[in-house]
């Protein structure tokens, strides 16, 4: 009978340890001290990160793409995620957020209420953003049109609807180091920042394990489409045989060397990339040539 109290104590200790380990971990309070955002540069960050591509209303075109009312649906093996309203509306959007709250959401996947966000929101890439770029991004987004459309709930069933369990996912898979490391030229370093952080290319082009963690050893080697329809291509040198100039042209015009044209969600990516300085597209091309070939 003495064993029962001991087992109960161990169970309580294990539960407490698990609760502590899976707790959201916000950024230090000092992270944004003295940081002021520049909205002009923030527009470039916004474009590179493709914020409108996911958070505009379904089917939005032209300037309506900058009304970030949300509502697009993103199917996955874990359920369907619906992009929330991130317009500056103070009630339905994020207009009332402080820079620290915005930073915790984007770089740590932690909501202002202290809950984990699902990694369908690519904070696992955005956590490599510079603090200044983050502040610039918020300054630009604060000036976009507000919209009072309520965010819709995600369609995620048990056990994936237990938000606290995402703390365990973060412990296993959330990393802030670069995938491609070592000595890089200035353009390659800039390309890495765009591809691995802002544009979060690996989130789609890298295969995932059964728990949804990126298989970094097969970086950019292609993956099944989360919707279950088709595949996302391998863009390592093993499959993408284009020259750097051809990659730049594709990211500018959407045309491949074979005179095919971009389609699907990648069309939004190319549209965003085409708005960046050409030096950034050249940097991405240089980075892709640095990625190890993977079959």
Automatic annotation (TrEMBL):
The residues covered by the Cytochrome c domain are 37-145, 186-292
Q: Does Heme appear among the keywords?
A: yes
Q: Which UniProt keywords apply?
A: Heme, Iron, Metal-binding
Q: Look up the domain of life of the source.
A: Bacteria
* Keyword Nuclease among record annotations: no
Q: Which PANTHER family match?
A: ALCOHOL DEHYDROGENASE CYTOCHROME C SUBUNIT, BLL4482 PROTEIN-RELATED
Question: Can you say what this protein is called?
Answer: Diheme cytochrome c-type
* Origin species: Gemmobacter nanjingensis
Q: Which gene encodes it?
A: cycG
């Amino acid at each position: 009978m003495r064993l029962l109290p001991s087992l109960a104590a161990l169970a309580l200790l294990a539960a407490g340890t698990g609760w502590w380990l899976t707790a959201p971990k916000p950024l230090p309070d000092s992270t944004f001290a003295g940081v002021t955002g520049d909205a002009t540069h923030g527009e470039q960050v916004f474009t590179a990160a493709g914020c409108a591509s996911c958070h505009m209303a379904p089917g939005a075109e032209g300037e309506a793409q900058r009304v970030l009312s949300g509502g697009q649906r993103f199917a996955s093996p874990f359920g369907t995620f619906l992009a929330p309203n991130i317009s500056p509306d103070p009630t339905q959007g994020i207009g009332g957020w402080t820079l620290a709250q915005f930073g915790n959401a984007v770089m740590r996947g932690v909501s202002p209420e202290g809950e984990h966000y699902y990694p369908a929101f690519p904070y696992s890439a955005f956590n490599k953003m510079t603090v200044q770029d983050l502040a610039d991004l918020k300054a630009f987004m604060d000036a976009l049109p507000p919209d009072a459309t309520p965010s819709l709930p995600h369609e995620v069933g048990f056990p994936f609807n237990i938000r606290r369990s995402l703390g365990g996912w973060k412990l296993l898979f959330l990393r802030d180091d670069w995938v491609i490391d070592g000595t890089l030229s200035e353009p390659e370093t800039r390309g890495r920042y765009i591809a691995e952080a802002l544009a979060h290319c690996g989130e789609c082009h890298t295969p995932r394990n059964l728990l949804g963690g990126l298989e970094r050893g097969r970086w950019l080697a292609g993956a099944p489409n989360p919707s279950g329809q088709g595949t996302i291509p391998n863009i390592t040198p093993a499959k993408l045989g284009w020259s750097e100039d051809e990659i730049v042209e594709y990211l500018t015009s959407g045309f491949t060397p074979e005179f095919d044209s971009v389609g699907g969600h990648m069309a939004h990516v190319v549209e965003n990339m085409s708005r960046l300085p050409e030096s950034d597209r050249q940097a991405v091309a240089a980075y892709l040539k640095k990625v190890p070939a993977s079959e």
